[in-house]
Write a structure and sequence with these properties.
By secondary structure, the protein is of the alpha/beta class. 48% of the residues lie in helices and 14% in strands. It binds flavin mononucleotide. The site of flavin mononucleotide (FMN) has 22 residues, from loops.
Length: 354
């Protein structure tokens, strides 16, 4: 006979095992996308959001240190501009990178989207993602980004034409609607699925919310219920706890992290390893965080020259936010005009921490 204490222990262990197995098998299944001749498998259910002005090749290179297999995205690229030669390096540099990278395109012109998607495919894109969520007026007023939510027929035409033109999978990233009152996100998602989208990412806010309020994971759950294709939940997932809660609520096939990774290129790898039950993840120390800032700055200068310092400023500010007593450090970095001096400021900080 087991004593009361032992049977309680066994019960607890069984619950932990059950939860572990549940996560392993329900949440950690790779996501299969058939494509149209080039199937893709997403092995890591924690994805990095496309972030304009942030997820360039230097930031992606940093993320890779902790998340070698994660699906990352380019910043959104305008298809028409690409056809004119602008932003082409954002696509051509894919060839030099390891790991899966989706190219995110935006436009309201189906033909331009087709041309851009073919170019991205030929340069090694893992998949093509169509932006249907960008709230920026300059883009939405012309009919691109989130404005496509209001024009279901045009959105479907773009998805259909792009899907027919490439062999890799075509996916979309969108929001819950234009406004709460006018939104019918389940209908929209079903139409995109019919048009050929093989995966849908939902940011749980409407366009008019911008980034205000909370991401509505319940609403994402309702969309998941009506779809046959995989769904990725996005919005306000900033740590492993959020990730588990979001997956539990939405029953999504994966999650996408955006702002949480600003200044924390390790976050995708960290959340993913916790999801896989790996408790040995080495969260960067304060000193290692300064070293990450130095590496990031050096890489940006290598790729962009002196202009790299301007791009680095926001990253340095985000990364150093996590350093104790960083106010002075951050303000001197923001004022510094020469890249080498900026590196020295960080190196001095590092030495002072020895
Ligand atoms: C600085 C910034 C840039 C963004 N750029 C893009 C983009 O290029 N494409 C896109 O689909 N979403 C973009 N987004 C939206 C994010 O990908 C994401 O959907 C949103 O921030 C919600 O997720 P989060 O709460 O994890 O940040 C951007 C958001 C921010 C804050």
């Amino acid at each position: 006979m087991l004593c009361k204490y032992h049977s309680k222990c066994i019960k607890l262990i069984s619950i932990i095992l059950f939860i572990t197995i549940y996560f392993m098998y329900e949440f950690l299944r790779p996501i299969q996308l058939p494509g149209r001749g080039t199937p893709r498998e997403i092995n890591n259910i924690v994805l990095q959001s496309p972030l304009s002005g942030v997820t360039d090749r230097c930031f992606r290179k940093l993320i890779r240190k902790w998340a070698p297999e994660a699906l990352l995205f380019t910043e959104m690229v305008n298809a028409t501009s690409l056809g004119l030669g602008y932003g082409i390096q954002k696509i051509e540099e894919l060839a030099e990178e390891d790991g899966p990278i989706g190219v995110q395109l935006y436009d309201f012109r189906p033909k331009a989207m087709v041309k851009a998607a073919k170019k991205a495919e030929s340069e090694g894109a893992f998949l093509i993602d169509i932006n249907m969520g960008c709230p920026v007026k300059k883009i939405a007023n012309k009919g691109g980004g989130s404005a496509l939510i209001k024009d279901k027929d045009l959105a479907a035409e773009i998805v259909n034409e792009v899907s027919q033109a490439v062999k890799i999978p075509v996916t979309i990233k969108t929001r819950l609607g234009w406004t709460k009152e006018t939104s019918a996100p389940e209908d929209f998602a079903i139409e995109m699925q019919k048009a050929g989208a093989q995966l849908i990412t939902i940011h749980g806010r409407t366009r008019d919310q911008g980034f205000k309020g909370k991401s509505n994971w319940q609403a994402i759950a309702s969309i998941k219920k009506v779809l046959e294709i995989p769904l990725i939940a996005n919005g306000d997932i900033n740590n492993p706890n959020d990730a588990i809660k979001c997956l539990n609520t939405t029953k999504a096939d994966g999650i996408m992290i955006g702002r949480g990774s600003l200044g924390k290129p390790w976050l995708i790898g960290y959340i993913n390893s916790v999801m896989k039950g790996n408790t040995s993840f080495q969260y960067p120390s304060q000193k290692e965080t300064v070293q990450i800032a130095i590496d990031h700055l050096k890489e940006l200068i290598k790729i962009k020259g002196d202009h790299g310092l301007l791009i680095a400023r926001k990253h340095l500010s985000w990364t150093c936010q996590n350093i104790k007593n960083s106010k002075e450090l951050r303000s001197s970095l923001m004022r510094e005009k020469t890249p080498l001096e900026a590196i020295k400021i960080l190196e001095r900080k590092l030495e002072s921490m020895e």
